[in-house]
Amino acid sequence: MRTRTPPPAARARTAKVTSQDVAERAGVSRSAVSRTFTPGAYVSDRVRAKVRRAAEELGYLPNVLARSLIAGNSGLVALIIGPIASPQEPILIEAVTRKLAEHGKRALLVPLPASGVADESLFHALSYQVEAAIVFAGTVGTPAVEHCVNIGTRLTLFGRIVGAPGVSCVIYDNTAAADAAARLLVRGGHRRIAYIGTRHRAFSDQERHRAVAAVLEEHGLAFHAHGEGDYGHDSGYQAALAMLSAVDPPDAIYCSNDGMALGALDAARALGVRVPDDLAVVGMDDTPMAAWPAYRLTTWGIAPDAIAEIMVRTTLAPAGEAETASRIVRIPLSLALRNSTRQPG
């Protein structure tokens, strides 16, 4: 019995079409196919037309990654991300992904392992020959940092500072924003000011905690209560619920991010606590949800696209010669004054 040759569509479903298949269909060399799909490479109009026609008939798409690796330029930037808890995180990651695309780069998302140490994820990303890596979550050890510097892979840390040559650190001006938030609460007549931060003592959270504590000390005050969360709504809700159910509840809560602040507002609503009459709540990030009518949260922040632009521009900037320290970029934040705090007199 004679075996029939399957039509092109059927072959495409059973085997990946290669440049050799295109070359055979077009009756040209494999190098001619390569030159056809390489910007700037010379190939005659006749050959180009034959190759493109054959490619279209076979459903062939050139392997951009393989081609870029041969050229020594993958165009990939790794984004090391942790569990998504904060409402700001997916918005920011999406904005960074778009900004990278505008610069001709593509994002490679690499999840953080359960240990919270980003080294494993970073080394995994490096195996894809990424041009740069942006670490959104987790801790990065010295060996991983040094390896990136040694092989010329640009490394940016978001939300923390590591004093290592060749590393970029992009971080909010946490001290200025938290200082302003604390002073707003004190000017509003609040004296029982509580703090909801992170269980894992994130770098930015530590800076915010120190700034608020300094303002309270300046006015002869101390934190009325402490709560811990994971930057998510539910953790903020539970922490605030415990505080507000106490015999002597706080009259203001500083939350280290908007996610936990929104949870605190929902806890106040559940207990019938009036905001801002009986309780003021402030956050950090100015996420879109903060402006929703149900919350109207007073917070400090900056547009995600602006953060993304700063982060991508910093990451892709050429390294300076003989750098002896990390490059630190502090992002100033603006006040979004809404209904969760008393209006300053």
Q: Could you explain how this protein is built, in words?
A:
The chain is α/β, with parallel strands linked by helices. 42% of the residues lie in helices and 17% in strands. It is built from 13 helices and twelve strands. It has helices at 8-14, 19-26, 30-36, 45-58, 64-70, 88-102, 119-126, 142-151, 174-187, 203-218, 233-244, 258-271, 304-316, and strands spanning 76-81, 106-111, 132-135, 154-158, 167-172, 193-198, 225-229, 252-255, 280-285, 298-301, 327-331, 334-336. The strands form two sheets. Strands 2-1-3-4-5-11 form a six-stranded parallel β-sheet, with helices on both faces. A six-stranded mixed β-sheet has the order 7-6-8-9-10-12, with helices on both faces. Strand 6 (193-198), helix 10 and strand 7 form a beta-alpha-beta unit. The chain is elongated and about 85 Å long. The model has no long low-confidence stretch (mean pLDDT 87).
